[in-house]
Amino acid sequence: MGTIAGIILATTPLTRPRGLVGNFLNLHCPSLKFSQFRTTSNTAMAAAPFHVSAAASSPSSAIDEEKEVTSSGKVGADDLLIVGPGILGRLVAQKWREEHPGCEIYGQTVTVDHHEELSEEGINPCLKGTKMTHKFPYVIFCAPPSRTSDYPGDVRMAALNWNGEGSFLFTSSSAPYDCNDNGPCDEDTPVVPIGRSPRTDVLLKAEEVVLEFGGVVLRLAGLYKSDRGAHVYWLKKGIVEARPDHVLNLIHYEDAASLSVAILKKRLHNRIFLGCDNHPLSRQEVMDLVAKSGKFSNTFEAFTGTSDPLGKRLNNSKTLQEIGWEPKYPSFAHFLESI
């Protein structure tokens, strides 16, 4: 196990420490004998920085295999594991707790960088590769493929932490739908064949793992909020070398989270759903709405592309009907009016 630096605990030998330090040790060092820690003053403890050595945050499997997560008791019927508790994952946690007060929520991350924030939000942090002493009834995987060399393998690891009783949900992308002529596209539209695109290959192979375990796939359109999304990126660039008539599809982060929670609660298996706001817009229409709103300081100048691919017009009416869900922001224009 990697060394823990800068921790001097003011505690009796047989007392497991509480608070942030205690939470970290409970999650990552359950086998430590606390009699090994030296006793000192509270002042010294407060002055000492709390951090984990580089070895402890290494992705090495040899290190990860020594870590273990334990719970304070038996797994609860509504407990949730979030793999990749970023913006979307934290919103899912918030909405899940609102509907399931008293549940335990765990957030699995690649590094310890945001563990303190997660703890403050009531999410028990744990590192990727950590051994779980029990499986969870609800698991959602919303980590991006950009930070791993084996995305399907990571999804499989998450599936192995699911006990099969509630739901296992994987948030994918609408990118695999084989449509690039600004034409209509819904849940049943064929996907890009394996081998044509590395980007869609990794998503489709991850989806195969989810369905193999009896999980559910939610293919999401472009996520956004006031300070994140395509419109923010384009505002910063000013001039973008992409065609203005390319149609894109959007869904607000809050709506993606509420749809995810609604699907988790259905306890479904081997299904594929689609998440969007059913109001596709061209790139130019998006930025025209941004300019008209007058709520952003930057000024967008132009799209200059002419030959890049077109997009697709998503429609998820089947998902809406089966799940019984409606978005808080039914369109990008509606969102802009609300801020």
TrEMBL record:
SUPFAM superfamilies: NAD(P)-binding Rossmann-fold domains
Superkingdom, natural source: Eukaryota
Coiled-coil segments: none
Keyword field: Isomerase, NAD
GO molecular function (one): isomerase activity
Keyword Ribonucleoprotein recorded: no
Family, per entry: Belongs to the NAD(P)-dependent epimerase/dehydratase family.
Protein name: NAD(P)-binding Rossmann-fold superfamily protein
